[in-house]
Amino acid sequence: MIAKKNKSGFQQFGRIVPGLQIPEFKCGLKWRGADLQTMRNMIVGPAASLGPDFERVNFDLGAGKSLAAAYHPSSRSGILPLIVIIHGMAGDEQSPNVVSSAAYFGACGYPVLRLNLRGAGPSAKTSVGPYHGGLTEDLEKVIDQISTRDYGAGIVLYGISLGGNMMLKYLGERGSDAPVRAAVAVSAPLNLKAVQLRIMAPRNRMYHNYLLLGMKNYIRQTKEHHDQGLLDKAQAAKSLFEFDDHVTAPANGMAGAEEYYRLHSAKGFVDHIGVPTLLIHARNDPWIPVADFEEREWHVDGAVSLLITDDGGHVGFHARDHKIPWQERVAVQYLGHVL
Predict the structure, then answer these.
(1) High-pLDDT (> 70) share of the chain, %
(2) Do 110 and 74 touch, CB atoms closer than 8 A?
């Protein structure tokens, strides 16, 4: 592992971007610790909010199915690229972390697209869910269709949690041919099996139950697309592993959860990424083991840069000196520098 230590509240690994000024991270005292950092946006809502105006757009998946998204244009769409935000497990366009990042990116002048994956949010009525963390065929179709529309000066991807795994897998599959200018992943898993084991640990029971309930809700919203046997298995699942094993995997043509985790973990794809990509992770993330990042070689001649903070939780990074989450400010600094 190649690392650069500093006194700014984070460590850098992999590709060091010359001249990039990353704001210092000082954890907010009120929200210190893994769980408070993780839950802050759920407790009090995002620091920034979106206006009521957006354009509802759809992306064709074939066979009469589509994904729905919320598009927020910008007066600078001819100058700045479109930022596509990919939500995490049991999320959608209304997830607090999605709203927070969309509001900040829009305030910085970027056009933004809040994508709903299969079975999520408005996509529940237009697609067959549930999606999974490696369903890059859908993401590829969305990106290819965006390229034909006048949404911005190119495309940037912003993947949150499980959406980050999908994004990294897609970028690795496409390599330097990806029609994307840059990408940022926040609290993205590299090893889906390791995350499954961590989230099912006793200390994470609250998170586990919340996510399991969300995934069951996906199925309820798309029940007309599934046979009764799958619906019964979804509601009977007592763990996320059971849900993935009995629902997610078979609904997506896989033998079971172990095959899903083995084939679709981002760890097998990140070395093949060919566009500038930034990963942001917290050492105390309660969902995703930091060992997956620290035990990996990150090469300075690759396309991937990694920042690891001591605190920040899972998609938290709430600082004491700024109301906007640190990872969103870092993303804007990174994009402004590498584009």
Answers:
(1) 98
(2) yes
pLDDT 10s digits, 2-44:
445 466 899 999 999 999 999 999 998 899 999 999 999 999 9
Instruction: Please tell me the number of Cα atoms within 13 Å of 26 on its side-chain side.
Output: 6
pLDDT in tens, 137-157: 999 999 999 999 999 999 999
pLDDT band at 168 (very low <50, low <70, confident <90, very high): very high
Q: Which domains does the chain have, with CATH numbers?
A: 3-191+267-338 (3.40.50.1820)
Instruction: Please give the model's pTM, rounded to 2 decimal places.
Output: 0.96
Q: Can you give the three-state secondary structure of the chain, one letter per residue?
A: CCEEECCCCEEEEECCCCCCCCCCCCECHHHCCHHHHHHHHHHHCCCCCCCCCCEEEEEEEECCEEEEEEEECCCCCCCCCEEEEECCCCCCCCCHHHHHHHHHHHHCCCCEEEECCCCCHHHHHCCCCCCCCCCHHHHHHHHHHHCCCCCCCCEEEEEECHHHHHHHHHHHHHHHHCCCCEEEEECCCCCHHHHHHHHCCHHHHHHHHHHHHHHHHHHHHCHHHCCHHHHHHHHHCCCHHHHHHHHHHHHCCCCCHHHHHHHHCHHHCHHHCCCCEEEEEECCCCCCCCHHHHCCCCCCCCCEEEEEECCCCCCCCCECCCCCCHHHHHHHHHHHHHC
Query: Nearest Cα to 170, choosing from 107, 108, 86?
Result: 86
260-285 burial code (b ≥16 CB/10 A, e <16): bbeebbbbbbbebbbbbbbbbbbbbb
Burial (CB < 10 A; 0-12, 13-18, 19+), residue 242, is middle
d(CA 286, CA 288): 6
